[in-house]
Amino acid sequence: MTDVLEVKALEAGYGPSQVLFGPSLSVEAGEVVSLMGRNGMGKSTLIRCIMGLLPVRAGEIHLFRNRINGWPSNRIARLGVGLIPEGRQIFRLLNVEENLLATARMSPGCKWTPDSVYELFPILQERALQPAITLSGGEQQMLSIGRALLTNPSLLIFDEATEGLAPLARRQIWECIKRLKQAGLSILLIDKNLAELLELASRHYILDKGEVVWSGSSAALAADSALAQTYLGL
Ligand SMILES: Nc1ncnc2c1ncn2[C@@H]1O[C@H](COP(=O)(O)OP(=O)(O)OP(=O)(O)O)[C@@H](O)[C@H]1O
Ligand SMILES: [Mg+2]
């Protein structure tokens, strides 16, 4: 079993419709792993299961060596997993600082404090007292990342963090993820930008209709252009 995340033969869905048909994946300590696939293939559904937001129907999820099937989401989060959710999900009417502190988990000597988040994203300090709704898309994404970091996680999951952002904002987010990787965090990255994923992640999984249809290294993925065409529509 890996130390960080292990998903085994997972099945889940919504009401009568099954979405996940047995995908397995793992993330090791300090590793950046990508999860790819076209729209509607089940990526966010798999993340919801890991975070305890959707019940698992079959299979197993192990997080930091705990079998977390059936655990409530707050207990899972406390193990040290932070999610940057699809669509950012910031508290729009709270100001930036209130957003950062809303779910913060800080202990004496912990790495992430409001100050270290402001150091990573200086613009958030400038905007600290502004309602989050007044931020640009890129700034809102920084806020979503900062909020996840303030839970002081060991594993970070990014669900399409660069989606819908202008090129400059997108680059800033990639730069931030690179720094978090260098800081030793384990990262599961869902995104559709193949070039950046090839550079940042060491291993990749492709999800198609709720199944892992391919997994392998960056070199193997880069060498097989048919793969990206077939399963990612690139
Ligand atoms: N709350 C829900 N209720 C019912 N069906 C849902 C719900 N959320 C997602 N689905 C369905 O489950 C399937 C997988 O959706 P999911 O959001 O996991 O895909 P995804 O791979 O994250 O796609 P995208 O790249 O667009 O984010 C889709 O067919 C979707 O319509
Ligand atoms: Mg999704």
Annotation keywords:
single chain; 234 residues; alpha/beta; Rossmann fold; 6-stranded mixed beta sheet; 5-stranded antiparallel beta sheet; 10 helices; 11 strands; binds adenosine-5'-triphosphate; binds magnesium ion
Can you put this structure into words, describing what you see?
The protein has ten helices and eleven strands. The longest helix has 16 residues. The strands form two sheets. Strands 7-8-9-4-10-11 form a six-stranded mixed beta sheet, with helices on both faces. Strands 1, 2, 3, 5 and 6 form a five-stranded antiparallel beta sheet that branches. Strand 8, helix 7 and strand 9 form a beta-alpha-beta unit. The structure holds adenosine-5'-triphosphate and magnesium ion. The site of magnesium ion has 5 residues, from helix 1.
Topology at a glance:
Elements: E1 5-14, E2 17-21, E3 25-27, E4 32-36, H1 43-50, E5 58-63, E6 66-67, H2 73-78, E7 81-84, H3 96-102, H4 114-120, H5 122-126, H6 137-149, E8 155-159, H7 167-182, E9 186-190, H8 194-200, E10 203-208, E11 211-217, H9 218-223, H10 225-232
Parallel strand pairs: 4-9, 4-10, 7-8, 8-9
Antiparallel strand pairs: 1-2, 1-3, 1-5, 5-6, 10-11
Helix pairs in contact: 3-6, 6-7
The protein binds adenosine-5'-triphosphate and magnesium ion (MG).
